[in-house]
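Intended use. Records like the one below are meant for learning the mapping from a protein sequence to its folded structure. Do not use them to infer anything beyond what is encoded.
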Amino acid sequence: MVRAAEVATTMAAALVVVIALSTTPAASAIDYTEHDLASEESLWALYERWCAHYNMARDLGEKTRRFNLFKENAHRIYEHNQGNATYTLGLNRFSDMTDEEFSRSPYGRCLFAPVQRISDGENEELQQHEDVSFNLTHGGATAALGLPPSVDWRGRSVTRVKDQGLTCGSCWAFAAIAAVEGINAIRTWSLVTLSEQQLVDCDNVDHGCAGGWIPSALDFIVRNRGIVPEGTYPYIGTQGRCRHVMAPPVTIDGYRRVLPFDVNALMSAVAAQPVAVAMESSAWAFRHYQGGVFNGNCGGRLGHAAAVVGYGDGAGGPFWIVKNSWGPKWGEGGYVRISRNAPNRLGICGILTQPLYPVKR
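Structure written out for the chain above:
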């Protein structure tokens, strides 16, 4: 079994915990009851409360135009939560946006392959793995692979949840940086918050706020001989001129792709370190996710990127712990638990399609 020694060594130092519903972060969406849905007046008051909670600048004309959509979403979310799904939905910052608006926004479209591709991945290596069934996810699989039943890198190797913002399609940079922050903390025992803005400004293979690609972001970090701390090159949510910063960079030696369409390969990688993934995120249910184990519709294309920072099992079944870049008021404090049980080889939200992780020796 490839990487067995590395995984075993890393696990000895890792914080390995059993994640259950009772231990997940409190959701940050707006709470409401059927009384808030009872009349136009109570729904308007709920909308006003929502605008204040998310600091949404809406004049009266725009509020009036968007109110019907907000009402529809509030009713739809409430009805979903009365059922027996493994996940709940909530009113969040996307709740008065149309599907088209979200899909055209930087949150909905931020992952693009660059026009210029790095030559056959000079810093890339495919992680080999035993050929096992893609949906082998329960106790027998983890035991056979020598993996713990649950892993959570938060607390030692994961920085705070960040927000790419409404003006910049930089999820690719946030996913790459989360993975680099993770392996750097594991190798050095020092958790350093790194600069997504340096990638947005300086990685000219990718497209800055117009989108990018995780492999080319990691290639940039290798070619640039590192990435600087966030404090010396802070995030501003727009693309600017590349600046030279005098600060000790965090370096990596390359990256490896995880064998795609293989749950066990991704579990093995995540047991050793956080892993960057491409994923789907444009569907209504996913963007209104509030908590629980998500097994719904995520969308039809890989337009987003995030980082898998753990896995576990609970009342909703086995899941991945995914760090998103939509801020701490989305989901479970900025995280989503995505089901490891999938109806096809792509995984829920396409999470098994293109996983990869940075290498730091």
